[in-house]
Amino acid sequence: MASSVTVNYLPRGCAVFTTMPDILFIPELIFGGLVWILVASTEVAYPNPQGWVMFVSVFCFVFTTVWLLIFLFGCNKGGIWPGMDTGYHATAALFYLSAAVIEAYVTLIFRNVPPLKTYQLNISAVVMAYVATLLYVIHTILSALRWKSC
């Protein structure tokens, strides 16, 4: 006899790579890493608010890696994890949104300062930061829906 109660759980092990929103860990790491690399490769003039962009990209890259490992090793047992998953991704989305806005502002300020390569790298960093923001927002929404259904 089939049960009318469905059990929702957070995936563990390789199931992380087959479920939504957890499959978004990989593109979050890729685009977050690209923001980190692109900002690190530009010339920084003093004073410059790109320090916040670097902090956000490094923090989110490291913490998302740790979060992915927690899911892979199955340490996400218990009722608090769906809420923590939603909370982390909401925080990361907010951080990346602020970093993307700051990076866009810095790019506009230094658009006429040579070399052109620095401007192009900054534009790329802005695009990648907004893509990372979008990925974290989608992950937050899907995690919140999963949390609500638990």
From TrEMBL:
It is a multi-pass membrane protein. Residues 16-148 form the MARVEL domain. It holds the Pfam family MARVEL. The chain crosses the membrane at residues 52-75, 87-110, 122-145. It is found in: Membrane. One of its GO terms (cellular component) is membrane. InterPro entries: MAL, Marvel, MARVEL-CKLF_proteins. Its main location: membrane. Keywords: Lipoprotein, Membrane, Transmembrane, Transmembrane helix. It comes from the Eukaryota. The keyword Membrane applies. The keyword Membrane applies. PANTHER family: MARVEL-CONTAINING POTENTIAL LIPID RAFT-ASSOCIATED PROTEIN, MYELIN AND LYMPHOCYTE PROTEIN. Belongs to the MAL family. This is Myelin and lymphocyte protein. It comes from Coilia grayii (Gray's grenadier anchovy).
